[in-house]
């Protein structure tokens, strides 16, 4: 499991086929890639990092977006959707949560807050 954490001023993902837009502001954006060996250990480490980094960035607004471009070894899509759903269940009561849809064509706009530490990469 690999994740890119970003201190977002604004996140917007347009999905033209559905005529929908995902949107969040002043948020922690987490782009996450699920890999075949990922299990409970990686799941818990990701959750711990989300909690820690959201405190560092001082936000309760969270975007969780599947992002296959952080690894060349990808988990099977049906299993990855289950992991994403599990993460959303764990996080939904603690954060204002936006879950980016899995496997959908979308345009992406990310505006980051300016700081030396506004992007963090983690490999679990």
From TrEMBL:
<dbReference type="InterPro" id="IPR023509">
    <property type="entry name" value="DTD-like_sf"/>
</dbReference>
<dbReference type="InterPro" id="IPR015011">
    <property type="entry name" value="Threonyl-tRNA_syn_edit_dom_arc"/>
</dbReference>
<protein>
    <recommendedName>
        <fullName>Threonyl-tRNA synthetase editing domain-containing protein</fullName>
    </recommendedName>
</protein>
<dbReference type="GO" id="GO:0005524">
    <property type="term" value="F:ATP binding"/>
</dbReference>
<feature type="domain" description="Threonyl-tRNA synthetase editing">
    <location>
        <begin position="13"/>
        <end position="111"/>
    </location>
</feature>
<dbReference type="GO" id="GO:0005737">
    <property type="term" value="C:cytoplasm"/>
</dbReference>
<dbReference type="Pfam" id="PF08915">
    <property type="entry name" value="tRNA-Thr_ED"/>
</dbReference>
<dbReference type="GO" id="GO:0008270">
    <property type="term" value="F:zinc ion binding"/>
</dbReference>
<dbReference type="GO" id="GO:0004829">
    <property type="term" value="F:threonine-tRNA ligase activity"/>
</dbReference>
């Amino acid at each position: 499991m690999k994740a890119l954490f970003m201190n977002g001023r604004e996140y917007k993902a347009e999905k033209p086929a559905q005529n929908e837009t995902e949107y969040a502001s002043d948020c922690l954006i987490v782009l996450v890639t699920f890999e075949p060996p990922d299990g409970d250990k990686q799941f818990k480490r990701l959750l711990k990092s989300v909690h820690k980094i959201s405190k560092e960035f001082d936000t309760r607004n969270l975007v969780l977006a599947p992002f296959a471009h952080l690894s060349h070894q990808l988990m099977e899509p049906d299993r990855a959707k289950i992991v994403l759903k599990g993460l959303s269940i764990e996080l939904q009561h603690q954060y204002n949560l936006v879950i980016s849809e899995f496997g959908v064509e979308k345009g992406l706009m990310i505006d980051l807050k300016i700081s030396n530490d506004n992007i963090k990469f983690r490999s679990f």
